[in-house]
Every structure is written in C-alpha cells, then in structure tokens.
Model the fold of this input.
Amino acid sequence: MDKASHLSLILDISPSQWHLSASPSNAFPLSFKTFLSHVLTFLNSHIAAMHENSLAVFGALPGKSVMLYSSTDTAEGADVVAADPNAYRPFKLVDSLVMRNIQRELELLGDPEEEAPIALVGALTKALCYINRITHIPTGAATEDPAVLIDPRILILSVSPDLSSSYIPVMNSIFSAQKYKITIDVCKVFGADTVFLQQAAHLTGGSYIYLERRDALLQYLIMSFLPPPAMRQVIAVPKQDKVDFRAACFCHKDIVDIAFVCSVCLSIFCSPVPVCSTCRTKFPIKTLQRLNASRPSLPPSANGTPRPGARQNTPLATSLR
Amino acid sequence: MDPGSDSDLSLDEGNLTVRGRNKAARAKGIDPTKDKGKGKAKDQGYAWEANYTRSWDTVQEDEGGSLQGAVEELMARGRRRRLLAPAAAIRRTIIRHLILLLDLSASMMDRDMRPTRFDLTLEYAREFVTEWFDQNPLGQVGVVAMRGGIGERIGEMSGNPQDVLKALSERHKLEPTGEPSLQNAIDMARSSMSHLPTHSSREILIIFGSLTTVDPGNIFDTLQSCIKDKIRISLVALAAEMKICRELCDKTGGQFGVAMNEGHFKDLLFELIPPPAQRAVARTTGGGTTNPAADLMMMGFPMRLPDTSPPSLCVCHAEMRTAGFLCPRCMAKICDVPTDCDVCGLMIVSSPHLARSYHHLFPVKPYIAVMTLDNAPKPTSICHACSLPFKVQPAASVTDGMSPLGRYRCPTCSNDFCTDCDVFVHDVVHCCPGCEK
Ligand SMILES: [Zn+2]
Ligand SMILES: [Zn+2]
Ligand SMILES: [Zn+2]
Ligand SMILES: [Zn+2]
Ligand SMILES: [Zn+2]
Ligand SMILES: [Zn+2]
Done:
C-alpha cells in the first residue's frame, strides 16, 4: 500500500455515442457534462489518496488521440490557471486543464458529415508509451530504489462499440501491458459489451465492469477503480462476470466464434479458404472439402452483436460480496 | 607389391589422399572425427577451467567513466538489426505443451557451474521460458520439481509466461534437498498432460544434475507409458551421461545432451525452443510453398464463465464446477483451454493464444532517424507518443544510425517519436501510436 500508483485514464469522447447516452429514452440517461463532473471528482480522489500518485489523462476522439493532462508536464499550463484561494491547487489544475483541453479538441473537431472511428488504439498505445517513459529509469540518474517505483494501471471509460478492424493492434497493446505488468481496467459506460476490452481486462488482471446504473457512475469508479492493483488482493473489487474470447477474422474483420485457422501463421478466416492470404500457404484440397462439409449451418454472428443470452446482470451490491 | 610399403598404397587414389590427410592430422594429435562435433564446446573449455565472466563485464566504460556510449552503441545496434530484418517474418507454429522437470536434489548445490548449478538452472530456465513463449505463442508450460524422492508440482500448465516465470522466481520455495526420483516426477508430468488435445505435442524437458534416481517401481514401465502417450522426453544432464537418461530420450524421440560448461548448457536448452515443424521444413528446403505440415484448422473461441456462476457438470471430468468455458458449437462446459471439445470434437482455443504471434506477421515499419529539421515546415516540440519534449540543441557526435536530435519519424504517419518510444514501439508494443496499426 505504501507504493505510489500511476493512473492513466482514457476517455472515449465520441460525440455521437454521448448524444445517444444522454437521450432521455434511456433508463438512466447520462450526459457528457455529468460524466465529466463524476470523472473529475474521481481524479481528485486519486490525487488526494497519496501525495506521490501520478496521473495522465488521454482522450480518444474520432480519428485522433490526444493527451489531455499529465502530472509531469503541467508547467506549460500552470500559469494559465488562475490561483483560487478556495480550491486545493492540484485539484484546480487537473479540473481546469482537462476541461480546457477537451473544449479545445471538441472545437477542433468541427461538424463533420460522418464521424471517424474512435482512436482508442492511439490513446492506448500513447498511455503505454507514457507509462514506459515514467517508469524508465533515466540513464545517468541515481539508481532508483525499486520500492519507490510506481504501480501503473490504465482505466478505459468506453462508450463506443468494438472496432473490429483494430483487433491486432488492440491485442498487441494488451500483450505489452501484460509484459510490463500494467493493469488495464475497463468501465463500459454506455453501449454493448466490447469483446476486446473484456479480454484486455481479463489478460492484465484488471476488472471489466458494465455500468448498470449510469447515474451512479462515481460510486462505481470509487468502489472499483480507485484502489490500486496491490490493494485489490485485500479488498474484493467486482470483476467482470463473463469473458468473451471471440476474435476478428482477417478477411472481413467480422467478429467470429468458430473460425478457420492457418496452421503456419495462425491467421483467422471466417470461411474455408484455399490459400492463406497472409503467408500464401496452399491448403490441401481434402481439408477444404472436409471443412466445407462440417461447417456450422448457422452464419457467423454479425459484427459486434452480443452472443445470444450473453449478459447476466449482477447487481453491484452482490458482486461486491 | 612390396610388402614393406605403407598399406595405404594398396588402396585407390581417392582413398589414399584421405588416409594421408588423416595421418597428418593424427600426427598433430587431433582426431578429426571427434574434432568436428565438440570443437565449439572445447574452445570454451570446461566450466572449472574457465574464468567467471558475466555480460556486464563486457560493457566498457569510456574515458569519462560513463556507460552512456556503450548503451547508445547497443541501441544503435538494435536499430540497425531492425532495419535489416526481412519485412515479413513468418514462423511455423504448432501447438506445443511442455513440462519443465527441474532436478532440485542436493546435487544441484554443486559449484562446478557458477554460482551454483541450482542458481544457473533457474536463471537459464527463466530465459528459456521467455524465449519459448515468444516462439510458441500457442504453447503451454508447466513446472515440476524432483526433490526429496517425489515429484512436486511447482507451476500448473499455463499459457501465460508471467505465471511460469513467477513459479521459477520464488527461489526460497525451490531450495534443493534430498534425492531425485525420475519415475515419480515423470509420472506426475504425464498425468498433468493427459487432458491435452490430440493434435498438440506433449513434451517433457528434464534438467538433471544427479547421477542417481530413487524410484518406487520399474522406470521402464513409465518409459513404456510415455511412448504410448506420445510424450517426447528431452534431457539436459549437468553431471554425466546415464544409460537410463539416454534411453528415455532415444525411445521417445527426444534429445539428450550433457552440458560441458555454462555456455554449452544454455545452447543445449535453447536448441529445444524452435517448434519441431520449423526443423522439418528446414530439412526439405526447395519444396516451394506446398508444405505438408500446412493445414487449415477449424477452431472455436469459447466464452469464459465467471467464478461466481452457479455450479454445473463439466464434460471433461464430470464434476460440479463453477468456472469454465463454453464450447461455441455445442455449449458444453469445459474446464480448460486449449482442448478438444469432448462432445462435438471442435478444437477450442482462446483467441489471445493465437493473437500473441501476430506481431510477427504485421511488424511496424522501422522509423527513420531525423538528421535535420531544416526542411520540415512546422516540427512538433514533443514526442507524439509519450509527450516528452525533444532536445533543441542537436548532439555533437552520434553513432551511425542514431538521430542527433533524438527524433525518429514514422514513414507512414510522419509523426516524430523519441528514442525510448522508438525502441518501445518496435520491440514491445508492435503498433505505431500515430498510424494505429
Ligand atoms: Zn471473414
Ligand atoms: Zn498462413
Ligand atoms: Zn472438467
Ligand atoms: Zn462442443
Ligand atoms: Zn516518446
Ligand atoms: Zn506511424
């Protein structure tokens, strides 16, 4: 517990998804503004929990990812923020810089006809590079005591559906996080479950939580995502209930549950193919005939749709045990 | 024919020259037949004859006593190697399962390999596991120890290198004691591989430092059942060759070797890393793209049930369990993946197992070292990935292939990255933060 922890927060800022989320036809509408006020409170509690805690905030916008705030690079923005005798300065700094930068990015976005896909991969890889930068002991500096090295984690607040074309980069990011012992937590604020982020949380030992009551976002954030990974062995934080291990095929980028795999390079195809498009291996005719005969009669489920009977609702109270 | 002449003269001319050369070699005291195989190991000398050297001894300080130059040289070498590497590196992979059987008997405390056989084995085993998982992404490794006359399960079969490395890093739990028992340990390893699917390989790798084994029964029965289960046993001996050890390897199609010194020990271990398919292909080079091992496999990606789900019967053990995986085709409940579904026969793997190797298929293009900012209209002041500010003043002297400004530009998205991010993106993340692929 004495270790400081680093939190990299990734905000999914998709204007169209947030518009849907705020629509009053939902059971629990949540607007982007309310969402941000919850998130800022959460960030303040992370900073308040320990003086050495560090923080970085990334935004995944349509077709672009940006760093919104980082506790190591505040110098350039610090003078812009007016001193306020009624506010704790670090809180004030985070709040105003994050808000200002989001405002700026949204204005830059303009009003395009069609929304580009969310640059979640960019934000995720930037978060990884940033963690690599701050955990990397600079050459020439005094040998750092391993006890003071931070305990890094990434929290993704997602509202967009899976982007199946980014299957391979997302998986690569997950494996590098796994290698560097970076925990990835995912909170699905709005929309259907995302298969890839479920796997991300599962593989890195983080928790994936689907937000049932969107109006209680802050409650979820504080209860589940505020304790650093080292603490979670002591207090039982809610974990995801199910993990969907489906993959995306290389040919159509569809998410499939039964697929055909090249034994040489392990490329995934949704139907039997005579030649592997990745490594150009030719497959035996006999195999093709056998596989075509034994193919499942059901067509592969469509892009990003949940599996039949997928979600089993676990109320927060029971999953907290 | 003159009976007094050299017997060589009675042979034909071709043979004569060969014999003649042989004689010359023998005159110098070298046996050419033996020289071939062991030359490399002999050069390094036996472990007890060699000096104690470690990698950090080879790093040289510069005049100022700083290591900066040496570190930069290492990084530059890594960059150059990346630029030279083929654009599309494809590896032959099959699904492997390996049990690492470590001798943890008292004989492992011998100091003929430095610091001790035990410490060196743990160190090499960790390196072995890391490298093994990189080359066999679909593989799984378990760890069994032999000490005190029994086999002891140290790490369960796992596809996650971290789990295996964790099991191998808890040194205090692995303290060597007592006598080893090959039979008990092999039986334990065999039982933990019984559930595995038929298409996968089953292998046992034994690192053995003793010259004795304490077995409760006939070890040849164990050998027979290993042959029956198609388990391949390979053994690296640290002490000397034992008849039973060689027989275990020969009968099951594995490899046997006796380590002469630290370097040879590591070579013997690392020879076992490349998947067997790779070796089979290498032997028949020139066969074109038609590779007999290549095939299209039908696989299912399961759904994992949570630990809190209501208990139900699994199809593999017929026991009440809470956690498990659901076969996507028949919805049968299975305890572990990868496996073949017991009901419909579909091969079930979790997709991360496959995805671990994809960075070999789609590598990130090497970044170009930026030499000058003169022809760039508006250079960014911070690294695109980690937001680290770039140096303003170019460094006076740089190693070949390094940027004096510490900037490396992606040829696809034209964003600039710092030195650390260049290395991190290419060696670890395998995904450019600018292009998102
Ligand atoms: Zn497809
Ligand atoms: Zn292929
Ligand atoms: Zn079972
Ligand atoms: Zn089945
Ligand atoms: Zn950087
Ligand atoms: Zn790029």
Remarks:
- Chain B has three domains: 92-270, 300-359, 363-437.
- Residues A 249, 251-252, 254, 269-270 surround zinc ion (ligand 1) (CB under 6 Å).
- DSSP finds 14 helices and 17 strands in chain B.
- Residues 137 and 356 of chain B are 6 Å apart (CA to CA).
